[in-house]
Specification:
Layout (H helix, E strand, L loop, with lengths): L30 H4 L3 H8 L14 E6 L3 H13 L3 E7 L3 H11 L3 E3 L4 H6 L5 E4 L6 H10 L3 E4 L7 H13 L4 E3 L7 H11 L6 E11 L16 H17 L5 E7 L12 E8 L3 E8 L1 E12 L3 E4 L11 E5 L2 E3 L1
């Protein structure tokens, strides 16, 4: 039985491959040419669920789709160094990049984006790690699910709630796992901080503030393109949002936001800065500011009735996080 998504509109198969993070500006595709229902995807790709080749290594065998910056500095070494994971395939539109990384790391298979069907049909691949621009997450998650591959997808999972719901539905329908590759849920300093909050080390949390910013200097960076899912809220705001939800141990009941941009032409399409306030149950508040036009900042402060915890840096992946706990006038790391 073919899976039918929540959307009743049939969408055409996209004809473009992903671009690198500093690709030049292209003509804007319509939503209808990019998004497809899962039922039409089955017909377009000719993919049916198949049983993967028996995996006797007790490791999850990944194909890494997208070889941009985050894939090379975080995802690729992460998979290679994980005890229960194995990197079997690389997917990229750059043949030179594929050849170099294949040789350097001894990867068995490489594919171009035009060969993605062959990659997904490979029985030696159990799962895919999707490290593509935000606007392509939906497309490739659906395709992987239909091929019977589990999915680990870079944040943000989708461009909007409807896409996310359809991705979840498709993976459930085809019996595969779907997870956002959000590392802070497993970062030691973050987990230790959460334990302190749960144990009441700073009393009851009353409010939380955070900031995350850096300068994007390349005007052609896809993070500055609205049709590619750009803007600081999608790129770095999710760290602050998830931190608030994690440490409040609840979901917000009300959200308000202010978006701002200077006269800098870098921000003709997306906001430069966003300030967001979240109301949580029991009279608690969280607020954060994110920006692509300000100096580097990465800070989180959780204030309770009996103390406070500061993480600075709070969201970095290239360096360790630092925590300071304060009770009254005394502070300790």
């Amino acid at each position: 039985m073919a899976y039918t998504s929540r959307s009743s509109t049939q969408k055409a198969k996209p004809t473009r491959a992903p671009k690198s993070s500093n690709a030049s500006k292209s003509s804007k595709p319509t939503r209808r040419t990019r998004l497809r229902s899962a039922s039409s995807a089955s017909r377009d790709l000719g993919i049916t669920r198949r049983k993967n080749q028996a995996n006797t290594s007790a490791k999850v065998r990944y194909a890494l789709i997208g070889l941009g910056h985050i894939a090379q500095v975080a995802a690729l070494p992460g998979i290679l160094n994980a005890r229960h994971s194995e990197l079997r395939a690389l997917v990229s539109g750059d043949p030179k990049k594929r050849a170099i990384l294949k040789k350097r790391h001894g990867i068995a298979y490489t594919y171009s984006y035009e060969q993605i069907d062959d990659c997904l049909a490979n029985p030696e691949i159990d799962a895919v790690y999707i490290a593509l621009p935000n606007d392509l997450h939906y497309e490739y998650v659906i395709r992987a699910a239909e091929a019977g591959k589990h999915v680990l997808c870079e944040k943000p999972l989708a461009m909007n709630a409807r896409e996310a719901e359809e991705m979840i539905d498709a993976c459930a329908h085809y019996g595969v796992k779907l997870m956002t590759a959000y590392r802070l849920h497993y970062e030691p300093a973050t987990l230790e901080t959460l334990e302190k909050v749960k144990q009441g080390d700073i009393g009851e949390v009353r409010y939380l503030t955070s900031s995350f910013s850096y300068q994007i200097t390349d005007p052609d960076n896809i993070r500055l393109k609205v049709d590619r899912g750009g803007g600081p809220v999608y790129d770095i705001g999710i760290y602050c949002l998830n931190a608030a939800r994690m440490f409040m141990q609840d979901e917000p009941t009300e959200v308000s936001a202010l978006l701002a941009r200077s006269l800098d032409p870098r921000f003709d399409e997306v906001e430069e800065t966003a300030a967001i306030t979240l109301r949580f149950p029991r009279g608690r508040l969280a607020s954060f500011v994110v920006s692509f036009g300000a100096d580097e900042a990465s800070r989180l402060e959780i204030v309770g009735t009996q103390g406070r915890i500061v993480l600075e840096p709070a969201f970095e992946y290239a360096s360790g996080l630092k925590r300071t706990v304060t009770h009254g006038e005394s502070a300790r790391a």
